[in-house]
Amino acid sequence: MSLPQPPRRVVIVGAGIVGLSTAWHLLKRGVRVTLLDREPIGQSASCGNAGLLSIGHYPLTRPGVSWRGLKWMFDATSPLYIRPRPDWSLLSWMWNFHWHCNQRHLDRCMAVLCDMGFKTLSIYEEMIREESIDCDYARDGWLDVVLNPENMEAAEHEAKDLVRYGYSYRRLTGDELRKRDPIIRDEVAGAIHYTDSAHAHPADFLVGLARAVATRGATLRDGAEVVGFERSISGSVGGVRLRGGEIVEADAVVLAAGVWSDGLGKLLGVRIPLMGARGYHIQLRDLPALPSTGLVLHETFIAATPMRNELRLAGTLEIDRLDQPWRRERLAMLPKGAERYLKGLEQAKTTAEWAGYRPCTSDGMPILGFTKAAPGVLIAGGHAMLGMTLGPVTGKAAAELLFGEKPCFDTTMFAADRL
Questions:
Q1: What mean pLDDT comes out for the span 187-211?
Q2: What is the greatest pairwise CA distance in the chain?
Q3: CATH of the domain at 171
């Protein structure tokens, strides 16, 4: 499925990493682009993530995760908390998620995700170089920091599995790790260094990319809430309708609104079954030292990333109805869990707190493609925690699909109608 001809005007709904990356690639092809977002640029879920560009990262659908999720379901302080409720859409999502938590599906996922990884970092570096974006980018990998010695073998096993896809790693003892990063506590057993990845300040990158696409001629409008879509007599979508009645016309629409894409899809008669998994972060300063690169604290699933002179602690996934109040106990889990691994957190000062939704599909893979129910609409999203990592390469593939070209990676598993 494709457009009858390459578009001259494209409306992109959602100005997170996927929407901005798609705009950047389209503008380089001479397309007139309008970006619409209900929130101010720089406040999306993309900006709130851990800042780890962890290429080759596993999707949520790992073998055994669904069974662990059932055990965690009734514990509001578990890494993945699903608040029980009588909701058919949640039960359907959970059943489909469970069905995909197997090794065969994981192997298929990893073949595609690993191919995307090196390509997305190349695009990051192209964007940063061409647009002079200052975002504290460093391609220095990330460390899977293991507290308990008995978990080192399992941690290394995951890293070894990526070698067949061209990735590399180093195993570090606790002493080697502390020599490199004195902030690590003596109790920590060691770490696996994923050497191919990178980290950056997500908000600085997004703001810089937004500035770049505006300079290249895009129209960016925040506070623009889409409430409907305009169709031609043939049924093809030719624009969007904003609250207040304004119509923004286009030859094609890209729906990249994160967790809100599901509700917008219903206006098109399209089912986009995404669950909003809320994550949290807390920003700290005045630490005695910062880690040399981004960390994931193995047993707690908490990420700790240096961002200029501060440390961001990010993590937890909480599936509940959208717009529910923050759970302060989950925010408190971040420093509490990190203190087992890192020195000096008790004297650090908090400079920011954040919570936002990761758009999660039930099979662990993003969505990228057209849908039969809404000709003229390309759906792009559902990256869960990997939006910031895979956004640039997703944007390139989205532009290629809009122009009827073969995308830069295999999008078969991304089909918009598969769910």
A1: 97
A2: 69
A3: 3.30.9.10
